[in-house]
Amino acid sequence: MPLRVLSTLDAAKTQYYHFKAIIVAGMGIFTDAYDLFCIPPITRMLGHIYYKSNNSRIQPAAEAAMLVVALLGTVIGQLVFGWLGDHVGRRRVYGFSLMLMIAGSIGCGFSMGTTQARVLASLGFFRFLLGLGIGGDYPLSATIMSEFANKKKRGAFIAAVFSMQGIGILASSIVTMVVCRIFGRKDHSTNDADIAWRLILMLGVVPTALTYYWRMMMPETARYTALVELNVLQAARDMGRVLDVPLSQIAEVDLVPPSPPSYPLFSRKFFFLHGRDLLACSALWFLIDIVFYSSNLCQSHIFDIKDDGSAFDAAFKVAQFQAKVACYFTIPGYFAAVFLIDRVGRLRIQVVGFVLMAGLYFFCTYLYIKDSRGVPFVMYGMAFFFANCGPNTTTFIVPAELFPARFRSTCHGIAGAAGKLGAMIGAAGFFLISKGGDDPNRDEKKTGIEVILITLGGICVAGTAVTMLLTRETMGISLEDNEKEYEGESVQGKCFP
């Protein structure tokens, strides 16, 4: 018999605390996106400040380093904080990851040095620190939301948390444009631009810092307390405080203490029961992040946004383009996922998303080869829509649902770390192939973009195959179905029909 407190959580009606949890957890994802995606316009500013001898364009290697160093920190953060989430507790380390994000963002704004190399090295260090916090927030936010949610709307709740990524991308673009317009009214001085990019980086911490108190006031999840710490009474008390349910309804009548785990992480039995799930989640997140981050972080190069004005004009153009993509395609894609995820299932929207993305990238390649004017904006944007109403969202959700409570945060962190490795490959590989968009040989640059687009399409085809062969459906299945210890008791989701 399942514990009453967990059954009550699964059946609980949607109420105020669910929405509060979405906002509190979502603010971490918001800051993640703000800090990761504000860097493309900022690198344009840095080019005007520190690379005037190079046509005011930052060197491709330096730009790639600014992208990759934060992603490297994210990889480490996901692994470390994911493990801590299962061994120390979700709530206990949740605030620490947020503090790292705040410290990293503020530190980026205070990057100092007497030469361009020292300033960029300082910025790189703080972006690595920022990445550690960002990495920690991914498994903790997803796990906490999945463990607080009811069974019927669990996918929508986790997708709503992840949709804050789109809001963060838009916010970073809006803040950049506003700062550029305010500072751009003055004479275009290097000192003004040097202050502006620092201000943009530091402003991202404001909404997250405002939610720090509520994050610290959240109780530990009932599933962690009951199934990992084996304290069922405390789990009932915690849920009685935050949910609109009387304690008498969730307290156990004849309490039988839960049995301690029978097998450890990465044991033979773990791989027998959960190895395929972990492989599928990690492989799919790796594939989608190659596509998502390379095309998102480097879109200003794909569309060859001209850089022939001041530092503020250059950054404004890149931020404006990012804002258009976010408003027209990225954010609607997230909202569509929230609406569909618990109606049609994770696997179906993941497969449809991969298939349509592949078709769009292949068609964009064909048009790019036939027409030198470049990639059609609408078709390129629709690829973002289907990514977010598909694999970019589902790869965040499914690892928080497939694994037992004592492994959930760790496995989500492993899958997320695989994704960020893909993001590093995608971002760095883009600059290697396209020469950062600055190669004087127009034909060579055009060929590089063609190679990138057709590669992205091929990766989406691979994602479709992995989804259909390895991934399980988790819609409508209680998280406790994955607590079964023996093969005959395991009641996991079905593979794609």
UniProtKB/TrEMBL annotation:
GO molecular function: symporter activity
GO cellular component, one term: membrane
Residue ranges of domain Major facilitator superfamily (MFS) profile in the record: 21-475
InterPro entries for the chain: MFS_dom, MFS_sugar_transport-like, MFS_trans_sf, Sugar_transporter_CS
Entry membrane topology: Multi-pass membrane protein
Principal location: membrane
GO biological process terms on file: phosphate ion transport
Membrane-traversing stretches: 21-42, 62-81, 93-113, 119-136, 157-184, 196-214, 278-303, 323-342, 349-369, 375-398, 410-431, 451-470
Cross-referenced SUPFAM superfamilies: MFS general substrate transporter (SSF103473)
Location(s) in or outside the cell: Membrane
Keywords: Membrane, Phosphate transport, Symport, Transmembrane, Transmembrane helix, Transport
Record-stated family: Belongs to the major facilitator superfamily. Phosphate:H(+) symporter (TC 2.A.1.9) family.
Entry-linked PANTHER family: SOLUTE CARRIER FAMILY 22 MEMBER (PTHR24064)
Entry protein name: Major facilitator superfamily (MFS) profile domain-containing protein
Natural source organism: Eucalyptus grandis (Flooded gum)
